[in-house]
Amino acid sequence: MTDATTLTPALRTVAPHCVKMELSMPTEATPNLEEDRLVDRLRDREPGALRELYDRFGRTTFGFLLKTLRDRGAAEDVQQQVFLEVWRRSDSFDPERGKLLTWVMTIARSRAIDHMRRRVPEPIDPEVVARSAEAPSGAGEIELLVDQWRMRALLDRLPTAEAQLLRLRFYAGVSQSEIAEREGIPLGTVKTRMVSGLRRLREMIEEENGR
Amino acid sequence: MSEARDQISSYLLGELDADQTAAFERQIEADPQLREEVERLRPLVTQLEGLPAEVWEAPQPPPLILPEDAARPSSSETADSKQSTRRRRLRLPTLTLRPLPAAGLAALLLAVGIAGGALIGGAGSSGGPEAGATDLVLTRIDDGPSGAHGDVLVAGDQRRARVDVSGLAPSGSDHFYELWLLDDDGRMVALGAFQVGAGGRTEVELPIPVTPSQYRYFDVSLQEDNGDPAHSGISVLRGPTSS
């Protein structure tokens, strides 16, 4: 029942060095193992695996679909289609050819394009036409959205402290010295965590891209 | 070199003044390794700077309608699921936490941990605390990420709890989550720590060394791995100890 990542208070109190040894493993080891396990469970059609996959990527695909389709109802429909397809085609996923996130996003992208192609001849209502005009039209724009939302999924995998730091800097626009002051941590620590977060994110992107 | 490394982020984020920038660029010229590191991170910083607000604010996805063969009620989804869903939406007040003296708490943690190891080991794969169990809902509170939720399934004998949490940020290597029992007057007992991986979901079983009903809340905190056994004051989920 208790998984290997559980740390009891006793372990933390009595043998902190043991914990440190475990935590000093390569940072990408845990996500990889977790992903491998999830892939195995999907292939075995284990109930619960799809729900876990949805917990992991549902927000990313939905954000992408909402932005791409500009229609909440359509995004919700396509979101269901995407995960149904993931479940049905989980046998065909080949980890040698790419990571799970990239595969799920590829399916989301394809279903979004299908949906847009289907609706193109329909708009008559000027409001619908206007909404369609706002939607991404070119393949390049959709690729950019896929990249942006993939980045979001990878940001979610960063350790909390690093993710929070990147969010403060790049979303809230807070400088490193302001972060240090606001969070009550030394500026040097902020800078170290910033570089470490960026480096980790870079590694995850490279891994996703198969480099 | 290490000093220069500390300046990488400031340089890439445009937080150095003109003199500092010129000095750092001279260092880059002289140090191929540093140059490589800067060039590797530069496009990423550009990408992050161009990430639209809606990506950071990612909306909550709709609930997934599971195909029949992918749906199986988990142990935490009882016949009372409608009520559970309703309770999940309730927002509980944040408490001001007054930790017990650290030494006493450390001793208690040690005792809980040892007992926990024995109990969990004994539970094995017997299927956990379902018989006569009480399912309690954990609801996100102020410090929790949106979409975070969980359940605590307390065994009929009230000696064990199965905690199932979802939507939490990965704990990473320098943080972990901890389950507590706590009361309005600041009394609290740590029940055990756990980590959350990239999927944001974890299910763990922990021993309960005290009577849960003597406390008001189950509480999940985010703790920094700094050796301090006290509650961090950062609570992400909380729920009542009785249904």
> What's the total helix number of chain B?
6
Main β-sheet of chain A, in a few words?
none
End-to-end separation of chain A in angstroms reads 36 Å
- Number of DSSP strand runs of chain A: 0
Q: How do the SSEs of chain A run, as a string of H and E?
A: HHHHHHHHHHH
Helix content of chain B: 25-40%
Query: Got a strand count of chain B?
Result: 8
Q: Radius of gyration of chain A over alpha carbons? A: 21 Å
Strand content of chain B: 15-25%
Overall body shape of chain B: elongated
The CATH superfamily name of the largest domain in chain A is RNA polymerase sigma factor, region 2, helix turn helix motif
In CATH's first tier, which class of the largest domain in chain B applies? Mainly Beta
**Helix run count of chain A:** 11
| Spatial order of the strands forming the largest sheet of chain B | 5-4-7-8-1-2-3-6
CATH class division of the largest domain in chain A: Mainly Alpha
Notable characteristics:
heterodimer, A: 211 residues, mainly alpha, Rna Polymerase Sigma Factor, Chain: A, Arc Repressor Mutant, subunit A, 2 domains, 0% strand, B: 243 residues, alpha+beta, Immunoglobulin-like, eight-stranded antiparallel β-sheet, 8 strands, elongated
Summarize the structure.
The complex is a heterodimer of chains A (211) and B (243). Chain A has 211 residues and is mainly α.
Molecular structure report:
Chain A is an all-alpha fold and 211 residues long. Chain A folds into two domains: 42-157, Rna Polymerase Sigma Factor, Chain: A, CATH 1.10.1740; 159-211, Arc Repressor Mutant, subunit A (Orthogonal Bundle), CATH 1.10.10.10. Chain A has eleven helices and no strands. Chain A has helices at 9-14, 16-23, 29-43, 49-69, 72-88, 100-119, 126-134, 139-155, 160-170, 176-183, 187-208. In chain A, helix 3 (29-43) packs across helix 4, helix 6 runs antiparallel to helix 8 (139-155) and helix 10 packs across helix 11 (187-208). Chain A is globular, with a radius of gyration of 21 Å. With 243 residues, chain B is an alpha+beta fold. Chain B folds into two domains: 2-55, Orthogonal Bundle (Arc Repressor Mutant, subunit A), CATH 1.10.10; 81-240, Immunoglobulin-like (Sandwich). Chain B is 31% helix and 23% strand. Chain B contains six helices and eight strands; from the N terminus they run ααααααββββββββ. Chain B has helices spanning 2-12, 18-30, 32-49, 53-56, 81-88, 102-123, and strands spanning 134-140, 149-154, 160-166, 175-182, 188-194, 202-207, 217-224, 235-240. Chain B has an eight-stranded antiparallel sheet with strand order 5-4-7-8-1-2-3-6. In chain B, helix 1 (2-12) packs parallel to helix 3 (32-49) and helix 2 crosses helix 3 (32-49). Chain B starts with a helix and ends with a strand. The relative contact order of chain B is 0.13. The interface between A and B is large, with 79 and 82 residues.
